[in-house]
Description:
Layout: H1 2-8, H2 12-19, H3 23-31, H4 38-48, H5 52-69
Helix pairs in contact: 2-3
Amino acid sequence: xxxxxxxxxxxxxxxxxxxxxxxxxxxxxxxxxxxxxxxxxxxxxxxxxxxxxxxxxxxxxxxxxxxxxx
Length: 70
């Protein structure tokens, strides 16, 4: 998500404003520290031109990486 967001020229604050959440909440979404509901995923996809599968696959990769580090 970060790569696409920066490619489009959006800051975390821009994304938070678009989603109606604080910048810190958006940061947690993007970093994978907080799960997103389906409506948030759809909103981000629409805003950044991503498919939902790209976001889900990225989240799964991050989850596996975190588990392997433990």
